[in-house]
DNA sequence: GAGTGGTCTAGACCACCTG
DNA sequence: AGGTGGTCTAGACCACTCG
């Protein structure tokens, strides 16, 4: 349960960046400063800082230091984080409408990923959610996962509408990595009503497979995203 | 000019994966094996392996080892690499048609990124390329960069049609990171002719900004991608 | 020249997986 | 039980930035 030291440090710094103790363009304390202030080895501190680089919070510059990154105007939905966590940083005006509450039944036929027999036999927890950003419906998400002893998900309400937070709270399940595929598609009648756009308007369609720290448990999503007002952004390295 | 040891090792392993010495699902030699065989410290080896994880070549598993990743069927164009490098792994049938050869003139008005005065004064090297994968036109790319002493780019042919390889060869310029934004759009008359698809068909539109190891030199791209046959894939972590 | 991050070594203990 | 990767310490030298 105890987090490793480097994650404690990176979480602490992340918190200070999000709350504005360190602002975009600021220099973080140098690695040797933190060595003294936190009484940690330099390698541990570097591991923490690399974590922040990977998540896009800072960039490092030889001879200068670690600089807090400008937050982007676009929605960084391609990253590994959930919708609420990503957008919560930018605006309080993020909401989720649960169209179909989590419930358990059979997996759909011709599912978009191939499943293990363990997953098929466990049955499928399914839910459908519509995400809003500043009053606009931005993303429609169908989520599927195997019911491997996860009945809390459909017997109780999701914590703040977030699947990831609920999985973490009830079962200590966290996301380890993601595969995704992106396509451009055209809105059919049903999608055009959902997003209040014209039939034939362009949408992104993303298939995702999330891997978790629990062996054999994966989460599958099909996402439609309206990029008319908000583009989807991402940074590498 | 000399590469650090961890990059030499990661390049060596990458080469062995690409050429098939290690196949998808194979275990790489353990960290302590490589410590002996390459006479390197374990931290250096771990740095090399983390490089491969970041680029999606392997995944690491506590207690088991490092496993070579399955190569995806989708086109991993969201990654930092250039078109040729990414697709060259899957098929030899990758080609580039240069529609407008690199030449230098003024920057377009209302350019999609804001430019530094240094960039504006240097003028703009522009080129337009259409990329084919297995005979299908998949991607239309407009590329722009400031002419900061890069006249070799338009006075000679690009090396194998690749801008990145030419920059590397002539000027030792490499890409350090990328920002990009993705939108779904609809083919107009001109795009529908280019991709041989119907007017109104959906396309991805991506704006990219590549940062390089040369300070102040950035490369800007506007990409249209036809995802009808090939999806765009990416893995995280 | 002083301070920064980048690379590298030589150790150590731990949790996890598999036979 | 033996081997694997994950975390951590205590040092060292280097290239780069800036005043």
Description of the structure:
Two copies of one chain form a homodimer. In chain A, the strands form two sheets. Chain A has a six-stranded antiparallel beta sheet. Chain A has a two-stranded antiparallel ribbon with strand order 1-2. With 237 residues, the first copy, chain A, is α+β, with helices and mostly antiparallel strands. The first copy, chain A, has eight helices and nine strands. Helix content of chain A is 28%, strand content 32%. Chain A is globular, with a radius of gyration of 20 Å. Chain A has helices spanning 5-18, 31-38, 42-54, 83-88, 117-122, 152-155, 163-171, 189-195, and strands spanning 58-61, 65-68, 94-105, 124-133, 136-146, 175-186, 202-212, 218-225, 232-236. In chain A, strand 1 and strand 2 form a beta hairpin. In chain A, helix 1 (5-18) packs across helix 3 (42-54). The interface between A and B is medium-sized, with 33 and 34 residues. Chain A binds a DNA duplex (19 and 19 nucleotides) through residues 4-6, 30-32, 40-44, 46-47, 49, 60-66.
Number of helices of chain A: 8
Class per helix and strand makeup of chain A: alpha+beta
Question: What's the gyration radius of chain A in Å?
Answer: 20 Å
Poorly predicted residue ranges of chain A: 72-77
Q: List how many beta strands of chain A DSSP finds.
A: 9
Helix and strand string of chain A, N-terminal first? Answer: HHHEEHEHEEHHEHEEE
Largest sheet of chain A: 6 strands, antiparallel
Could you give the order of strands across the largest sheet of chain A?
3-4-5-8-7-6
How would you name the oligomeric state of the polypeptide chains in this document? homodimer
Helix content of chain A: 25-40%
Which two protein chains have the largest interface (Cβ within 8 Å of the partner's Cβ), and how many residues from each? A-B, 33 and 34 residues
Proportion in β-strands of chain A: 25-35%
How far apart, in Å, are the first and last alpha carbons of chain A? 29 Å
Mean pLDDT over the residues of chain A = 81
Shape of chain A: globular
